[in-house]
Write a structure and sequence with these properties.
With about 475 residues, this protein is α/β, with parallel strands linked by helices. It has 16 helices and 17 strands. It folds into two domains: about 5-315, UDP-N-acetylmuramoyl-L-alanine:D-glutamate ligase (3-Layer(aba) Sandwich), CATH 3.40.1190; about 325-470, no CATH class.
């Protein structure tokens, strides 16, 4: 039996020029969706078998991963066995396939990788990175007998490998924007057409507020396909009852999100609608709202409802690494987030500014790593705007390159030195080398920020990591 490192090496050999995420299924290759159905049969799986996974299928440009994380957490807190398939991963490929909220163990990953690869090779099938992992995820979820499989679309929707699912229980479309234009189209309506490709006849779907152009396409696609489409209410419209559960009561009376930022409120509202519909279908209705589509061409708004204690707790306990994540580390607190579109960059800058407004003694660091991003000039212009510049006090701008590991090293080197300088000014008069700084932290029993932990995240097409350093005492703004 191969070990984990060998399995990852073999998997990486399947990568396409698009990177670790690969190109799930481009708009020019709808036959790839049909091919994954054939490959499933190679693994002993009929496409109809996927119906037993009670799939929740989510597409979108921004927030689909966070939405899936919210959904998984809420259903797990309801007591269901969950399977989550998402991309990309931050540190380990095992993060892409989760059971009950936890990434696969290395042992399980190797076991299932070996089985999937051997069956494909026996039929002389050589597939790409994302294609392979999608096959493996479906196989694992069936073998592990999950109650629900939450599937995040890789790229697009219509021709994505995950769209082999014919009868999901419910679909969701997160916020739409311009991304992967070479594959999905150069206009927002074209991209919306692709994202709405996951709609299925008679299967309810939900979306959040979109631009008029994007929403018009979603509505038209839903009408053509025969998919009842609903607009999610604002998160503030949902209510929470006091619970008999002491742990839930301690969270508070209002809806608490573990993932910070105004944009996460839309993701949470979408997740609530998806979970409510899923529970309704499984005979665990939270609300008596009708899910039938109105006879008019106007988009029907879903009714808000009162959250169950499990929903309340699930939203408050969701963990999604690298997205609106707070990492305490000794006398430093790191706020980690990322963006791959101009709109996402604006969302992060707004969140960052809010954090600084609440804690003015804190400072923000933003390594800026635009690798292969088509709208690089637009992003530079966005960072130069007064509002964003106020939020990103100091951006470590690294030369555009495809070599993500070099960007990572350069950006994190700047970050570590600046955090070190501030920390040193708080506790010592003389400068110390980084190794001595690390030794000193160890002697104090403080953890050293594992900067390499976040290295893989910079392999996305463009990413801004927001680090807000919380220091005790005087903060010196190093120019």
């Amino acid at each position: 039996m191969m070990d984990y490192e060998e399995a990852v090496k073999l998997l990486n050999m399947m990568q396409t020029p698009g990177g670790k995420g690969g190109e799930p299924c481009s708009r020019h290759a709808p036959e790839k969706v049909r091919q994954i159905g054939t490959d499933l049969e190679t693994l002993g799986i009929k496409v109809s078998d996927l119906d037993t996974l009670n799939v929740i299928h989510v597409s979108g440009t921004k927030g689909k991963g966070s939405t899936c994380a919210f959904v998984e957490s809420m259903l797990r807190h309801h007591g269901f066995r969950t399977g989550l398939y998402s991309s990309p991963h931050l540190i380990s490929v095992t993060e892409r396939i989760r059971l009950d909220g936890d990434p696969l163990t290395r042992q399980r990953f190797v076991q299932y990788f070996h089985h999937t690869r051997d069956l494909l090779q026996a039929h002389d099938r050589h597939v790409g990175y994302f294609h392979f992992l999608t096959l493996m995820a479906f196989y694992i979820f069936l073998e592990e007998k999950v109650d629900v499989a939450i599937m995040e679309v890789g790229i697009g929707g219509a021709y994505d490998c995950t769209n082999v699912v014919r009868k999901p229980l419910v679909c969701g479309v997160a916020s739409l924007g311009m991304d992967h234009t070479a594959m999905l189209g150069s206009t927002l309506p074209e991209i919306a057409w692709q994202k709405a490709g996951i709609f299925k006849p008679g299967i309810p779907a939900f979306t959040v507020k979109q631009t008029a152009a994007a929403l018009a396409v979603l509505q038209q696609r839903a009408l053509e396909i025969g998919c009842p489409l609903f607009l999610c209410p604002n998160l503030s419209d949902f209510t929470v009852n006091r619970s008999m559960d002491k742990e839930v009561n301690e969270i508070g009376d209002g809806i608490t999100l573990s993932l910070k930022g105004e944009h996460q409120r839309d993701n949470a509202a979408l997740a609530l609608c998806l979970v409510n519909l899923w529970l309704h279908d499984r005979g665990h209705a939270v609300t008596t709202s009708s899910f039938s589509q109105s006879s008019s061409n106007d988009l029907t708004s879903a009714r808000p409802f009162c959250l169950t204690p499990a929903m309340h707790k699930g939203l408050a306990c969701t963990r999604w690494l690298g997205r609106a994540q707070v990492v305490p580390c000794g006398h430093l607190t790191f706020y980690l987030d990322g963006a791959h579109t101009k709109e996402s960059l604006q969302d992060i800058s707004t969140t960052s500014f809010a954090l600084q407004h609440n804690w003015p003694e804190r400072c923000t660091e933003s390594p800026f790593s635009p690798t292969g991003f088509a709208d690089f000039a637009d992003l530079q212009a966005e960072i130069a705007t007064p509002g964003t510049a106020d939020s990103f006090l100091r951006a470590a701008h690294v030369t555009r390159t495809r070599r993500a590991h070099q960007i990572t090293a350069a950006a994190l080197h700047v970050l570590q030195h600046r955090a070190y300088e501030r920390h040193c000014m708080t506790y010592a008069d003389d400068a110390e080398d980084l190794p001595e700084f690390e030794d000193r932290c160890h002697q104090r029993g403080e953890d050293i920020p594992n900067f390499q932990y976040w290295a893989t995240v910079l392999e996305l097409e463009m990413l801004v990591l927001v680090y807000v350093c919380s220091l005790v005492g005087f903060i010196h703004n190093v120019p």
